[in-house]
Inverse folding.
């Protein structure tokens, strides 16, 4: 009598999560095939370019050059799945109550800083949390907003005449393309941190995104407020 | 012990007891508010997040239950991933190309549902205009500007092409616009164009209609044939246009760019200039225009690009 199975991730969330992974990969891949045809962005400080997106070796290694048409074909095919997956995800969060686990509140920013300091081994104490800590809440809500922003900036580039109000709102056609590009970089950054954190969190945590459950030690005293009315192993 | 003493002791102990109770209550209250403070510092509690825990299990039970769930989860997930990867890989190239082309066509229909001809692209001050040369398909060297004529097919009551000169186009109402030309490669450049609206050209030269009655561009655009085909004189470059886009007020038969007659590399003597589609559709050095029922061939669409390519 020493363990309990905790339901961490509903079936819908697990599917939507895993489906979004190849979809995002394909959107980024096809996006880079498109970007290559006018690869103009870089990181500049005082007019000096520190890094150009992307170096020649990057294109050569991945076989990217001269595949613009293919990139456009894939981008405008998988965009529908990316969009629909995202819409279902948001609707599911809203109606299932799962939003309670990932939405931040104003105090989250302070706690997220503490979580970050804890993860960097600067402070010992971890702030109180539910399924996710406040840094995760900000990241997971943020990544949904990034998805929405990618759709919006993408539409502004895709239909700059019919949606010229939107393109103007984003600062014009060239700015919208720049924003769309940097959202992609943010996604890559999110992905790297996410995978690193999952690796650090360990197997049991990773497995819970596949099975939905995690075996947890029974707490000596489970606070009344955190117990669900429903008991027994949910199937 | 006297009766008196006994009573005072009782009272004393009662007072003591009372004190203890008070202290206990204060302690409990303090603890409670601590817990409340803690709650206020926990986003999960603020948002009323619930946990979903099973009945207590022994270590072995928990282990076997998790193994069972793991096996199932990894099998289903792995199988789905394999079907996805190999399904796509094993799909014949032709099927894939078809699927992707049909997706372009599907996207085109979606675009047309939301298309409104009155929406305009932003215009810019002419002094912002620049130029960038790109694309020489169809601009073969053996071209004599003086011999150039515009041939027009698919007109009312006419079987052979109508032959026009540049002066015929210049005779149409002259329009100037400064718009952003967008290349499908991802760059854009602001250009100033002078020319005639394609809709004015249609109104004047009367293409065939679906019903057979005279065309009425302004009131009955849906009666016009659905497509326009345009090609260079050597027919090496050709584009297909949908009628709504070519009727858009920002689609011009342009003969001037940035205030000067078109140069050879920009498509002299006459080219399309539009804010409604990518540069690949803005054919240079137009040799022939045909109004047609059938979706025209398109140079870049044949090379995997979107036939519609509309903004």
């Amino acid at each position: 009598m020493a363990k309990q199975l905790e339901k961490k991730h509903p079936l819908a969330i697990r599917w939507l999560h895993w489906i979004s992974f190849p979809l995002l990969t394909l959107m980024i891949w096809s996006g880079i095939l498109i970007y290559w045809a006018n690869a103009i962005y870089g990181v500049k400080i005082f007019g000096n370019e520190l890094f150009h997106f992307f170096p020649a070796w990057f294109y050569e290694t991945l076989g990217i050059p001269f595949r613009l048409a293919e990139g456009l074909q894939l981008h405008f095919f998988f965009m529908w799945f990316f969009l629909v997956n995202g819409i279902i995800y948001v609707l599911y969060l809203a109606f299932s109550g799962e939003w309670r686990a990932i939405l931040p509140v104003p105090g989250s920013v302070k706690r997220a800083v503490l979580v970050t300091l804890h993860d960097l081994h600067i402070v010992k104490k971890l702030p109180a949390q539910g399924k996710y800590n406040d840094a995760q809440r900000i990241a997971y809500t943020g990544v949904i907003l990034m998805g929405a922003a990618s759709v919006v900036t993408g539409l502004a580039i895709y239909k700059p005449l019919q949606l010229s109000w939107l393109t103007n709102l984003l600062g014009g056609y060239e700015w919208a393309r720049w924003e769309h590009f940097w959202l992609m970089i943010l996604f890559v950054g999110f992905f790297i941190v996410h995978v690193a954190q999952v690796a650090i969190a360990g197997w049991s945590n990773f497995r819970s995104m596949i099975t939905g459950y995690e075996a947890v030690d029974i707490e000596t005293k489970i606070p009344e407020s955190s117990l669900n009315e429903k008991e027994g192993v949910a199937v | 012990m006297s009766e008196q003493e006994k009573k005072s002791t009782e009272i004393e102990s009662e007072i003591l007891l009372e004190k203890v109770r008070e202290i206990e209550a204060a302690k409990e209250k303090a603890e409670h508010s601590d817990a409340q403070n803690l709650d206020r510092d926990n986003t999960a509690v603020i948002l009323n997040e619930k946990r979903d825990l099973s009945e207590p299990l022994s270590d072995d039970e928990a282990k076997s239950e998790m193994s069972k769930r793991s096996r199932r989860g990894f099998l289903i997930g792995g199988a789905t991933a394999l079907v996805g990867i190999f399904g796509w890989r094993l799909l014949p190239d032709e099927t894939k190309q078809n699927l992707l082309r049909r997706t372009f066509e599907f996207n085109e229909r979606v675009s047309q549902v939301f298309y409104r001809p009155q929406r305009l692209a932003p215009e810019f001050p002419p002094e912002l205009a620049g130029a960038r040369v790109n694309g020489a398909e169809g601009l073969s060297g053996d071209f004599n500007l003086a011999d150039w004529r515009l041939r027009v097919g698919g007109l009312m009551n006419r079987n052979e092409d109508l032959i026009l000169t540049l002066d015929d186009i210049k005779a149409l109402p002259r329009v100037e616009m400064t718009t952003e030309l967008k290349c499908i490669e991802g760059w854009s450049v602001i250009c100033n164009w002078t020319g005639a609206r394609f809709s004015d050209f249609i109104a004047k030269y009367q293409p065939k209609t679906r019903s057979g009655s005279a065309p009425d561009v302004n009131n009955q655009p849906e009666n016009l044939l659905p497509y326009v085909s345009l090609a260079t004189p050597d027919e090496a470059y050709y584009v297909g246009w949908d009628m709504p886009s070519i009727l858009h007020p920002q689609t011009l038969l342009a003969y001037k760019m940035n205030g000067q007659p078109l140069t050879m590399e920009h498509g002299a003597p006459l080219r399309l200039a539009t804010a409604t589609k990518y540069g690949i559709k803005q054919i240079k050095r137009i040799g022939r225009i045909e109004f047609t029922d059938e979706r025209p061939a398109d140079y870049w669409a044949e090379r995997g690009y979107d036939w519609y390519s509309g903004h």
Remarks:
- Residues 3-40 of chain B form the longest helix (38 residues).
- The helical segments of chain B are 3-40, 43-46, 59-90, 93-114, 166-170, 198-205, 243-247.
- DSSP finds seven helices and ten strands in chain B.
- Chain B touches chain A through 66 residues (CB under 8 Å).
